[in-house]
Design goal:
Helices cover 22% and strands 22% of the residues. By secondary structure, it is an alpha/beta fold. The chain has one domain: Vaccinia Virus protein VP39 (Rossmann fold, 3-Layer(aba) Sandwich). The termini are close together.
Length: 451
């Protein structure tokens, strides 16, 4: 499954199903032997059963009515302050929330109601049958150590790309830190890299590095029609938890986006609900790169019963995050070989899904965004923590969620048909709202079905 519902409000996704599409058919290399297996992302990561509401709101939560929850639930009490007045950042956040509140509430209810009519979001489906693995990702530390390795010289650019699996399944000689690695096969591949097993989707390319080693991606000599990035924004929560190294906003301007983007490239940036970050992207970062802001979307996080994961009006955590969409408009003297669709992008669309319990794992946007760039677009993810079939990915934790501990692996016969590769149209349909004028300009794609 991938896109469960599409309507004039947006999309409702099955995030785990999107991961499975690229990993269901795998070849596993062990001791130079190749076996065929099926990999499935563990559903326990997406079993967000209870919303983080107050105890008083539990009865309303059981009834599964979003509007009732918003009416009955009272936001949690604010922490005591030395000063009673809100600071400017909190005032800005409150004003922003008031502007988009009705869009979030009404759009989410419409998408969730449509999904429940089709039999989805009815509550927990799979129960975790095994302990939750706690894989410690040490990729960022390895990237720091790799800075001591020599960079690939400009004269060696032709050798800056190599294949994931050499003859006989050998992966021991791969340089993941200064060369782009490609899986050129039609199947996903389970391989051992740096002593750990990872699931690599088909037709995928990746570079494991930080800012100081991003040049091999530029030397890759590909221009991308779609660039998605999820920067490690600075905030107090991340600083306290030390989950990952954050990055000052000003440092993002160093990314070579104009060197990577094709004319009219669609650029999508995940942004926190902090107003200063949103202003920076819209007013500084995008103009610095020559990108025109065209839309603002929202990722809304719900439970397996369709409720918001946090109270919509919570003063602390909101159940949504922002995406800023823009088009790269190169200078007049840049050769214009525009090959992607120039479909108008609607503003204030919603992407609704059950979030992962794994920190910073975002849903794949491939099925949603191909409506605006075409199915054959070249796609790049910056600050990636996972891989997508057909995409190029870069980041210092680019393989994090590809670790085999996040998957269930089962053997499969050579002639076994994988039902996830078939298009099923007997159950999932567009919501009636998809017949609105806003949808009429979009090309037809199979993303309205379960893929």
């Amino acid at each position: 499954m991938a896109v469960l519902v599409r309507s004039g409000c947006g999309w409702l996704l099955d995030s785990a199903g999107l991961v499975d599409r690229g990993c269901s058919r795998c070849v596993r290399w062990t001791d130079e032997r190749k076996t065929r297996v099926r990999c499935r992302f563990k559903r326990q990561w997406f079993e967000i059963i209870k919303s983080h509401y107050s105890v008083k709101g539990s009865a309303a939560a059981d009834r599964g009515n979003t509007e009732e929850l918003q009416r009955v639930n009272k936001p949690p009490k604010k922490r005591k302050r030395r000063h009673s007045e809100l600071n400017q950042g909190e005032i800005d956040s409150q004003h922003f929330h008031e502007k988009i509140r009705s869009v979030i509430l009404e759009g989410t209810k419409s998408l969730v109601d449509s999904a429940q009519l089709l039999g989805y979001l009815k509550g927990a489906t799979d129960k975790a049958t095994e302990p939750t693995p706690l894989h410690e990702c040490g990729l960022a530390a390895l990237c720091e150590m790799a800075k001591e390795l020599p960079l690939v010289d400009d004269e060696e650019q032709e050798e800056s790309v190599h294949s994931l699996v050499a003859e006989g399944g050998c992966t021991s000689q791969l340089d993941l830190f200064s060369r782009v690695t490609e899986n050129r096969t039609d199947w996903a591949t389970v391989v051992t890299l740096m002593g750990e097993e990872y699931v690599i989707p088909p037709h995928t390319a990746f570079l494991l590095s930080d800012f100081t080693r991003i040049q091999p991606l530029v030397h890759y000599e590909k221009k991308f029609d779609l660039i998605v990035m999820d920067p490690p924004w600075e905030n107090k929560s991340v600083k306290r938890s030390r989950r990952y190294n954050s990055l000052p906003s000003s440092q993002l301007k160093r990314l070579p986006v104009p060197q990577l983007a094709s004319p009219n490239c669609l650029v999508v940036t995940w942004v926190t609900n902090r107003p200063s970050h949103l202003r920076f992207v819209r007013d500084e970062l995008y103009p610095h790169w020559g990108i025109e802001v065209i839309a603002q979307w929202f990722w809304v996080k719900v439970t397996t019963s369709g409720e918001f994961v946090f109270p919509l009006d919570s003063p602390h955590k909101k159940p949504y995050e922002v995406l800023v969409l823009g088009r790269y408009r190169p200078s007049a003297d840049t050769p214009r070989r525009c090959k992607i669709l120039n479909v108008p992008v609607d503003d204030c669309r919603l992407i609704v899904s059950v979030p992962s319990a794994l920190h910073s794992q975002k849903p794949s946007l491939s099925e949603v965004l191909k409506l605006y760039v075409g199915a054959k677009a070249t796609c790049l993810e910056l600050f990636a923590r996972s891989l997508q079939p057909g995409w190029t990915s870069w980041g210092n934790e680019v393989l994090k969620f590809q670790h085999l501990s996040y998957f269930t692996v089962t053997p499969t016969d050579d002639d076994q048909v994988d039902i996830s590769d078939k298009v099923c149209t007997d159950k999932v349909r567009d919501s009636p709202a998809s017949n609105s004028p806003r949808e009429s300009s979009l090309p037809h794609h199979s993303s309205t079905t379960v893929d």
